[in-house]
Amino acid sequence: MFSAFFLRKNFPSVVKLMNRKQFRPYFLFLFAVCVAAPARASFDFNANCLKAYQQIFELKLTAARQLIAAEKKNNPENNIVPLLENYADYFYLLTTESKAEFERLERNKSDRLDRIEGGDESSPYYLYAQAEINLQWALIRGRYGEYFTAAREIRRANGLLQENSKKFPAFILNNKGLGLISAFLGNLPDGVLKSTLSTFGIKGDLQQGISMLDRLAELLPKSRFEPFYEEVVFYYAFVLNDIAHSREAYSKTMKYTSRISDSSLLKVYLQALVSTKNGHNDAAITILANRPSGTEYQPFPYLELLAGIAKLNKLDLDAVQDINRFLKINKGVNYIKDAYLRLSWTALLRGDTGAYAVNISKVKNTGFTYQEKDKQAQNEANAPMPNLTLLKARLLFDGGYFLKALDVIGTARVAQFVAGRDQTEFYYRMGRIYDELGKRDAALANYQQAVDKGKTLKYYFAANSALQMGKLYELNRDFNNARIWFNIAIKMKDHEYESSIETQAKAGLKRISKP
User: Fold this and answer.
1) Sign of torsion, CA 275 277 282 285?
2) CA-to-CA distance for 470 and 486, rounded, in angstroms?
């Protein structure tokens, strides 16, 4: 509505006309238009939006998009719509791994932010929705090496969530993004992303981030924010498994995902991934074999590769079928090299060195190296053919079959292996197996041998042995020795997984330095 002051100041001629009878209809029309002008767009997380949100987190993206389109048509002023559209794009890109689709859909970002910025500033969703969109694009962007832009988006998201927490302290959803950002930044390897964020003055704390997400996962089911539980668990599992490399990753993920519906394909992904990475291989095989299927679910090729990885860890050569199925249906750019590397291993297990060579050539000449797994596959393709005994022990160990791995390698002697890489790996594998079997002294002795033999090599065995020694000493509260071995791991340079190992060692030093 126009005030009299506003009219006098900006439209003096209109004020003069107001007293003229013939111009009164025009004034009344102007007044009616101003009164009828729509208020700022609202943020209405209504039943329809909640249903779309739930469908997204079950990876039923087609149904979710239909609900979002209906909401957009029936309630065009609802600014939850652009947020939901972004969620759908985020999970579509996560499941397809398509860089071309990323480049196409990324253009929607600024449009959605513009729509939200025109919304109701008094809503806790006003800043929150902007932060979520920035954070989602940063997470996807990082998968393709766009670190500088990702850093700016993380900085923007962090600032928005910090401001929103001050304005709406009871809006606990702020802690989801803040916890993720704090954990992510608190354990970030050295590189472009870390240096850029440091320039922006943003720092994190891994343990603080984990604590925030853990508290949220416990609190949400008892609160009015219960519908957002699955999203919190999704990020929490990611932090525990991929960022913190936590010993509790499996138990916590399985605990918190247990209350999520079995109709959720995202639940399958989380449980299978954490199982394969934490020595619960049989559980992963069962979970993936019983996963929900149908045209209502978003295609997720990586689950085929994950099934192949789990079978290969059991030395089950049927893994070839799953891995080939992944390569056939995958339209994305990630995990192609990793898949061909695993096919080369199945060939070695069959004794087919010709097929091994063919697949190693494909590792070298196809795919991309955006992901750490693909970078490592490229490194291994350029290395000599692996020793079959060591390969079997490695796979069985990764599957959590520690006694079987010991049966394969335990009767061997170091002299049987070629000096350098193979002998270092022998001691490393023995150390890892004894570590998991709780045989501390035997583990430390083998780790020490791996460090001595491999500290000048480009392979990760020596550096990771030093890291594991630090963790073992930490576990036994021998902090002096833990500090020594974490520092030794940090000082080793120019080897595989250098950033990841160094980051974990620095996190260990930080843990033991706290009172």
Assistant:
1) positive
2) 5
Collapse the DSSP code of 460 into the 3-class scheme (helix H, G, I; strand E, B; otherwise coil) and give the result. coil
* Torsion angles phi and psi, residue 385, rounded to 5: -55, 135
What is d(CA 404, CA 414) in angstroms, rounded to the nearest whole number? 19
Can you tell me the distance from the alpha carbon of 256 to that of 265, in angstroms, rounded to the nearest whole number? 15
d(CA 275, CA 253): 9
154's tokens: 């993380």
Q: In what helix (H) or strand (E) does residue 514 lie, and over which residues does it extend?
A: none
Model pLDDT for residues 59-95, shown as the tens digit of each residue? 999 999 999 999 999 999 999 999 999 999 999 999 9
pTM of the entire structure?
0.89
Give, in order, the Cα–Cα distances in Å from 435 to each of 349, 403, 441, 453: 26, 12, 9, 19
Whether 268 contacts 288, CB under 8 Å: yes
What percent of the chain clears pLDDT 70, i.e. is strictly above it?
A: 90
Q: Which two tokens stand for residue 443?
A: 């583990």
Question: Is residue 420 scored above 60 in pLDDT?
Answer: yes
Q: Residue 204's pLDDT is what?
A: 84
Overall residue count recorded for the chain in this entry: 515
Query: Which helix or strand (DSSP H or E) is residue 496 part of?
Result: none
Amino acid, single-letter form, for residue 348: L
Rg (alpha carbons) of the chain, rounded to whole number: 28
Question: For the segment 84-125, what is each residue's pLDDT rounded down to a tens digit?
Answer: 999 999 999 999 999 999 999 999 999 999 999 999 999 999
**Tell me, what amino acid is at 429?**
R
Q: What is the largest CA-CA distance in the chain?
A: 109
Number of Cβ within 10 Å of residue 118's Cβ equals 12
Residue with tokens 């790996």: 425
Residues 413 and 117: their CA atoms lie apart, in Å, by 67
**Tokens at 329, concatenated:** 């249906």
Q: CA 441 → CA 39, 387, 409, 414, 472, distances in Å?
A: 71, 26, 18, 19, 10
Give the Cβ contact number of residue 204 at 10 Å: 20
The dihedral over CA atoms of 369, 371, 374, 378, expressed in degrees to the nearest 10, equals 50
State mean pLDDT over 417-425: 96
Token match 């065009």: residue? 76
- Cα four-point dihedral sign 131, 49, 220, 279: negative
CA distances from 62 to 19, 111, 161, 378 (A): 59, 22, 30, 36
